[in-house]
Amino acid sequence: xxxxxxxxxxxxxxxxxxxxxxxxxxxxxxxxxxxxxxxxxxxxxxxxxxxxxxxxxxxxxxxxxxxxxxxxxxxxxxxxxxxxxxxxxxxxxxxxxxxxxxxxxxxxxxxxxxxxxxxxxxxxxxxxxxxxxxx
Length: 135
Hints:
Residues 12-120 form the Na+-translocating membrane potential-generating system MpsC domain. By secondary structure, the chain is an alpha+beta fold.
């Protein structure tokens, strides 16, 4: 991970992760009228892992209950493909790094979704002050 300990203009990795998680939650709320109950984001060098819980919308739940799970699977596949470019744009805007690949999938049974995003480079982050003091 690229770091510049002297620049307070860069976020810490934790701040970057929290900002992306909050924006993903907002994206879901704005796009689907439903936001995940939990969004976790972890930066691992030039990789970003995002996990989401309770992403299945009320209408999808209703269709599953009505034994239309194949329809839900088809609809969710389209939703997943539609969300990927929006997610990619959001990550690029916040991290200021180009996304080279975005993998995204939803498990309808568990209501969880996940993304693995590959960045062209690790984003510029600074070391957290609490970590800097320990060294």
